[in-house]
Design goal:
With 499 residues, this protein is mostly helical. It contains 16 helices and 16 strands. The protein has a 3-stranded antiparallel beta sheet. Strands 12-13-14 form a 3-stranded antiparallel beta sheet, with no helix packed on it. Helix 12 runs parallel beside helix 14 and helix 13 packs across helix 14. The longest helix is centred in the N-terminal third of the chain and has 21 residues. It is globular. It starts with 19 loop residues before the first helix and ends in a 5-residue tail after the last strand.
Length: 499
């Protein structure tokens, strides 16, 4: 297989195990696909709404502090004006490249591109987390290549992908959590032999995309093998636990959750089906089975308002605990329903998204805590949402805004924009710093002292502000949802088409 032509707007799918009837079906469906009208190459130039202008100014305010205090380093501490180093890969720069491209920020984008080309060092004696590096750095480089067609981003992505492949060197082929980018030696986390299920099953979109672009199947084969290993095991209610052993390849029994360490497993089942142009139906089947398990075993309702939430289960014990991370779920439920899956998925999407909005609306700052619990005691009175002292922080997370964007794009229901704008105003009021930057806060329940944490995650500029910008975009030809999918770090990747 030869590498894809750089002039092609959409990479061609690898003809792996394609049947004649599949090819005929794909050729027929190709006749119905409209030509993309979003212009690729230089940063996007579109007419911005008033809300988008405000969001662009917020990005510039955040970028100003990062550029002054942490340029080239991973993240900025905007209160102390210092940097934070995690992988030493310029996370904030690479995570924000496609955001700047979409916002049409030529000066900022071109400066960041020069850093990637001349200053980004991949061959360094540094251990990095496979999952975080894949979704933030590899995903950011691939996305920016697709948007710009500039080979520097694909060259860097290929180099990085080759290094990350060494994570898959375990006896079971389940990747280790960490790999050294110079020695290429991989290992598990310091606390034990397991990897997080969400981490090993949420790198597939990126590795599969790299195979599409380069023509080398090794990336996709390594990533696909992981999914096959997971799917060939018994899974309670077709749901996955949080951990998998890298030596044996066996899933560990434990808590069933859509929160930390399991969340994006479900996201990537649907999105791999969509990425394939809906040709790899095994992903559709696995996704539908998992959503049925969620509907039957994890859905709960609060008292007294009957808010629909997604709880956790360990054995027979159900916990009404829900991470803010779970607020990604409405986005995939809606995307699935839009692509012909059951309409009940859209109903659940709307109900859960309303609950996610209530996690903001019912807090004094208008910002959601990291974790909430729901009251399930009828007749007792009290609030639907309970927040424990250790869970009151807000990390500037994007998941609710992601779902607001997807559901608005699909339904045009203006309430989703209304909710998103209120969230943005709360971010401006309680997380914006006067001299530049935004900070996560310790207490969403205290308007007088939300207690800034001196931390601006790369996903704030890479995801949160990007989804806000797209939520208020009036031009549906910008990243149309039948031609693009978003990885779990909000980096858009194209849906494959067939020859």
């Amino acid at each position: 297989t030869t590498p894809a032509d750089d002039n092609d707007d959409v990479p061609q799918a690898l003809p792996v195990d394609m049947k004649i009837e599949d090819i005929e079906k794909d050729l027929e469906s190709d006749k119905k696909v409209e030509t993309r009208t979003m212009k690729l190459g230089a940063p996007l130039k579109i007419e911005h709404t008033e809300e988008q202008i405000a969001i662009i100014n917020a990005f510039k305010h955040a970028w100003k502090e990062y550029r002054l205090s942490a340029w080239g380093l991973d993240e900025v501490k905007p209160i102390s004006h210092r940097s934070s180093t995690w992988f030493n890969l310029g996370l904030t720069i690479v995570d924000s490249l496609d955001t700047m491209w979409l916002m049409g920020l030529d000066e900022e984008f071109n400066e960041a591109k020069k850093w990637v080309e001349h200053s980004m060092v991949l061959d360094q004696n540094k251990d990095v987390n496979l999952f975080e590096t894949t979704i933030r750095v590899l995903g950011g480089l691939l996305s920016t290549y697709h948007l710009t067609k500039d080979s520097i981003f694909l060259d860097k992505a290929t180099d990085l992908g080759d290094r990350l492949l060494h994570s898959f060197s375990s006896p079971s082929h389940i990747p280790y959590s960490d790999v050294n980018l110079n020695t290429l030696k991989a290992h598990g986390p310091s606390w034990g032999p397991d990897s997080s299920v969400s981490e090993v099953t949420s790198i597939q979109l990126e590795f599969r995309d790299l195979s599409q672009l380069t023509g080398y199947t090794k990336y996709q084969e390594a990533a696909d093998r992981v999914i096959d290993i997971v799917q060939n095991q018994h899974r309670e209610h077709n749901l996955v636990p949080q951990f998998i052993n890298t030596q044996s390849g066996k899933l560990r029994s434990g808590t069933l959750t859509l929160g930390s360490r399991a969340d994006s497993y479900y996201e990537y089942l649907l999105k791999q089906w969509l990425q394939s142009g809906k040709t790899e139906d095994k992903f559709r089947t696995w996704y539908l089975e998992s959503i049925e398990g969620i509907q039957d075993y994890l859905v709960g309702h609060s008292e007294p308002s009957q808010l629909t939430f997604i709880g956790e289960r360990k054995g027979s014990r159900f916990s009404p605990k829900m991470d803010h991370l779970v607020c990604f779920l409405p986005s995939i439920l809606a995307l699935g329903a839009h692509n012909g899956l059951p309409s009940s998925h859209m109903e659940l999407a709307e109900e859960v998204l309303y609950t996610c909005w209530q996690m903001y609306e019912r807090m004094p700052t208008g910002l959601s805590p990291e974790i909430v619990y729901f009251n399930q005691n009828p007749g007792v009175g009290g609030e639907d949402i309970i927040v424990k002292p250790n869970d009151r922080h807000n990390l500037l997370r994007p998941e609710t805004l992601e779902s607001l964007f997807i559901l608005y794009r699909l339904t045009k229901d203006e309430r989703y924009r209304d909710w998103g704008w209120k969230i943005f105003q709360s971010l401006e009021t309680y997380t914006k710093l006067a001299n530049g930057g935004y900070s996560s806060i310790n207490n969403v329940q205290d308007t007088d002292n939300p207690s800034p944490r001196d931390k601006m995650e790369s996903f704030f500029t890479g995801e949160t502000l990007k989804y806000l910008f797209l939520l208020f975009c009036d031009d549906d030809t910008v990243l149309p949802l039948d031609q693009w999918i978003f990885n779990t770090e909000a980096h858009p990747l194209p849906i494959w088409t067939s020859t």
